[in-house]
Amino acid sequence: MLKVKSVLVSQPKPQTEKSPYFDLADNCKIKIDFRPFIHVEGVSAKEFRQQRINLLDFNAVIFTSRNAVDHYFRAAEETRVKIPDDMKYFCISEAIALYLQKYIVYRKRKIFHGQQTFADLISVIKKHKDCNFLLPCSDILRSNIPELLEDNGIKFQCVTLYKTVCSDLSDLKDVNYDVLVFFSPSGIKSLYQNFPDFKQNNTRIAVFGPTTAKAAEDAGLKIDISAPQPESPSMTRALELYIKKVNKNGKAK
User: Fold this and answer.
1) Whole-model pTM above 0.85?
2) CA torsion sign, 186 to 187 to 190 to 196?
3) pLDDT digits (tens, 9 = 90+) for 241-251
4) What digits encode the pLDDT tens for the residues 229-242?
5) Which of 217, 219, 212 is nearest to 238 (CA)?
6) What domain range is 159 assigned to?
């Protein structure tokens, strides 16, 4: 097994210096670069109108991400809709709830949040079953979210306000890394859209989550590192365990 000297993480570079990726780079004496393989684009006003959604038909909104918040208020602005002060907001986490301050006066609004998962948020939503909920989402929505709402008898409607698209990675054409790290099937798709002739060879592939693993396997990639696992609940921990093992016993290029 070849030693690992370089890792490319297919996400934006962390904005805080306390990121575990920087600790990993120091502890394992490796180079870690960051480059988003995908990015989010808002749907056009025309695409929004084609969905025949009137934002004012709903008295509650469910937010699962900051992107959902941004594009909900963008859609309101572009369609010249004034969101009423008594709108109720249900957020998957406190961090997303606090992010609403970018658009509204936080202390004067009805804002509710879960701990971190949608299952947590459902218990809060169930207390407001009389509401008509709008779920702003991307073109890629995990099926468990609408399923949980339906199973709990929640009246809701999805609206696609943004979409995940592959980024242009042409500048990476002649750059080689020992490990490529992926977090979504879209990242795998972007790899092959940008580099249709990609051959794995000695490149190690790290994946987070079962759907990413399936996309990698379907693309014919060999997975060397996967998370979460009992011994490695995070991607950084999975990378650390693998790198320390191969760098202790492996061969240099």
Assistant:
1) no
2) negative
3) 999 999 988 77
4) 999 999 999 999 99
5) 212
6) 41-164
